[in-house]
Amino acid sequence: MEFPVRRRQFYLRQLFLSATPFYIKFSVLISVGRTNQFQGVKITDTLSKQRDVESGFRTINQYVVHQTLGEGSFAKVKLVHVTHRPYVLFAMKVVHRGLNKTISDYLLSPLQPDQKQEELTINTEVAIMKKINHPNIVRLFEVIDDKSVNKLYMILELMKGGSCYKIGQQPLNEDDARSDIRDIIVGVSYMHKNHIVHHDIKPDNLLRNRRGIIKIGDFGLSSYYEDMTAKIRETKGTAAFIPPEAVDTTNYPDGYLPSLADIYSIGATLFMIIYGHPPYNLPNKYDLYKQIINEPIPFDSDENKETTKRISSDLRNLLEGTLEKDPLKRMTIEQMRQHPWVTYNGTIPLPDEV
To answer: What is the CATH number of the domain that holds 43?
Structure first.
């Protein structure tokens, strides 16, 4: 049986993952100043800034800072390498934090309801990322606290392939989409078993490394739940990927299971990488939310019907199960792990939990 090149690579990788009981991980980190370890994440509160003699680039501790890779409302992501080791590359997320906040506030203090939303986001992202370590999750290696300008520098695994899909890109075929979704399911399954719900699964937050593996990033909206069966009543996430129960919580007076919101978001992501756009994509948020709540999955709309004719019945079944409007009828992460489309009809099961 001949596999396309990418699928052959994927097949071998999955066999390796299934057979490997643990992962050997390493990072090259030079100790500068006083540091602490939080479950494998180095916390540095001594800062050294200068110009690298060889390149002329600015340095922050042992990191030489290069160009901007991305930028948001209160953070930038820079490419960096370790001094005198230009092949050791990381992504540095430069985050503006609230005044008079120290690194201990973000790592150890409970969330305060009167904090600004960006402070809550920073707090959550650092606190959660320091707890998790998985091959399908972007890894946080170090946090540098720059008290002089109220910034945090988060040293992250560099994802050279960028996001798994962008609007305007050619939609993926089923084999490539399946490879990506398998990675996502394994990562989300690990998170849920560790009581973490992402709340913002979407293509922009699903990043590809140089080997083509998809890893989950951006944990700013994530939450840790001591009891994963407890229900919540809040709207979190990106509009086109939010499930109906999170869009209009008045329809669910007792709340909804947060883990099932991640399942819906995976389904919306899968729909997007197959069809080229989210299932519901009106520009007006009010109209978009009405679509999410009331309209069936638009398999047979004018813009989607040709793609729908080409996809397999198993893929359609998976989309229907993950995009189910009733959260009580929606697929669970374990059902996704066992689904025929995901497992090639059981011939290539997902690797065991790590």
So the answer is: 3.30.200.20
